[in-house]
Amino acid sequence: MAGVLNFKSTPPISMPIRRHLKTKTSSSNRVSVIRSSTEISDTTSTSSTSIKAEPKSGVSSITPPPNFKPPEPKRFAVRPDKVADVITASLNLLFRFGTGVFVSGYSVSFVPKNEFPSGQYGLEVSGYIVKESSKLGPRPEKPIEIYEFEGCPFCRKVREIVAVLDLDVLFYPCPRNGPTFRPKVGQMGGKQMFPYMVDPNTGVAMYESDDIIKYLVQKYGDGSVPLSLSLGLLTTLTAGFAMIGRMGKGSIYTKAKMPAQPLEVWAYEASPFSKLVREVLVELELPHILHSCARGSPKRQELFERVGHFQAPYLEDPNTGVKMFESAEIVEYLRATYAL
């Protein structure tokens, strides 16, 4: 199922935000946390068993489904049995005013098709290629690490700024009853409150979605929080309304195998097709590196060069060697491969 179109086609660092401390790395607990008490998405109690920050390896053999073959990517295709899912996942575009559709500093220019280089990604419109660009801030050397879950409005706000800033993020899903990363957050920060961010580039760790947003724009943007993410309660309410159509999806743990390595996903928050895949990644508690690729992202060109095609979502699973497009089939692959 195509989430985007098929076409022919890293810094100065500002001072840490007040109340957030830079800490030393250690093998058992890489960061200390500045705790806050105003934003609690979920405080369900769970086991206090010691959990490592990285996913466990060797838990069980992980192989793709028998006779599995990745589907061919399809342009503008929605599988008939997934139409309702795509519609409900699209409500975020209405309630969040398109936040996360475009990368910071987005701009376009129109180039005649016959003058556009064949090896570049672009959108063809009436004989012209829409060339998209952006103005990005400093790039982190290592992916930001975020512990969160799909059905949380506070977490959504942070995922939106990730799309705007075009950041790569290592997501550790924390669905309710999740046995691995939800307890880990409690160990690192003293409470199971989400989202929780760790920046391995600076040693900073923090709770509170608004604080995380301010930190990220100061470190990796131009210092300005987008209007749609700076409206306080209204921002939080609309982020909650955006998930009405997918109520409960991506929030509750489904027993699954733990991969030895994080999966890699090219996707972005505003895409309804990407959202359907993210829901399952969270429910199965599968850690994944998200290469955010909203409109204007240079990672669209990178993926185009990598596989000769751009479309989101795109999955690469280093645990099985599977590489594939199409959201409906990615969801089926994840459940067949990892769910127990």
Automatic annotation (TrEMBL):
Chain residue ranges for the region called Disordered: 20-73
Domain GST N-terminal stretches: 261-340
Low complexity biased stretches: 26-50
Extent of the signal sequence: none
Protein name: GST N-terminal domain-containing protein
Gene3D superfamilies cross-referenced by the UniProt entry: Glutaredoxin (3.40.30.10)
Domain of life of the organism encoding this protein: Eukaryota
Record-linked InterPro entries: GLR_AS, Glutathione_S-Trfase, Glutathione_S-Trfase_N, Thioredoxin-like_sf
Pfam families: GST_N_3 (PF13417)
